């Protein structure tokens, strides 16, 4: 499970979520009052998109990453992540966003 979490680049995703939250709160004075559920779904959707993008990027860069000392220990170039799992993991994140947006009725 840890190697799948590593595919999503959690530290970068955390910084993206912090930026999204700050932007959300700074923008709230421009329109209607916001709810905690809107903030939650905004952050959830952002997390899923960022994680899926990071996983897809690692898959796309797998050959080059395998050649560089700095990146060859990542899950895909090192072989720690099975092909079937990573090919099915990355598309799940963006698809989950549509479910999150649909339940929140904000997208």
Which key phrases capture this entry?
elongated, 107 residues, mainly alpha
Describe this entry's structure for a reader.
This protein has 107 residues and is mainly α. It has one domain. 76% of the residues lie in helices and 0% in strands. The protein is built from six helices and no strands. α2 (10-27) packs antiparallel against α3 and α3 runs antiparallel to α6 (83-104). The radius of gyration is 16 Å and the shape is elongated. It starts with a helix and ends with a helix.
User: Which residues form runs of ≥5 with pLDDT under 50?
Assistant: none
Number of domains: 1
The ordered string of helix (H) and strand (E) elements is HHHHHH
Query: First CA to last CA: what distance?
Result: 30 Å
Name the quaternary structure.
single chain
Shape: elongated
What is the number of helices?
A: 6
Give the % helix.
over 70%
Look at the structure and give the mean pLDDT: 78
Q: What is the radius of gyration?
A: 16 Å
SS elements, strand count:
0
Structural class: mainly alpha
The main pleated sheet reads as:
none
Strand content: under 5%
Brief summary:
This protein has helices at 2-7, 10-27, 36-60, 62-67, 75-78, 83-104.
Topology readout:
Elements: H1 2-7, H2 10-27, H3 36-60, H4 62-67, H5 75-78, H6 83-104
Helix pairs in contact: 2-3, 3-6
